[in-house]
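User: Predict the structure for this protein chain, please.
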Amino acid sequence: MTLVLTPDASSRRARSLRMLLLFLLAALPVAAILGVVVNWLTAALYTVVQTAFLMFGVRQQGQATLRLDDTGVQFEPGSFVVRAAWADIDRIGEVTLPTGPADALVLTQSGLRWTLDAGTRRQVTLKAWDRVIPLSDFEPEWRTGQIGAALRAHRPDLL
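Assistant: Here is the predicted structure, written as structure tokens:
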């Protein structure tokens, strides 16, 4: 049986809020220049349009997926895929990801199976994301949820 999970609603909301704040901050320098050179209405309009456009792009990205089955675990954040057999999992530890700190499965070796392009492959391997599969983004209380049940069934030594 295959278990397929996506990030919970609170994780998605937190990510959207972080991206919104980032986009607003990024628009401020250009908006300030537009306000001084043209007018403040144009600056405000620019900020709203740029932020809306970038948030639309964020919404169009594929949603991350975590798959657990009898053969192992697969993490698909959108631009790459990490796959590991149960035996290839070294431990569970806290890692820092672009979304913040997360509990993750740490692999003994790279589990990278696919990337969108060569630049993505370089970035993923350089930052060692090819050796981690996050858990807490998908279930904040993963130890007592479906992820914990799958780990107890396949790798109880990790818990």
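The mean pLDDT is 91.
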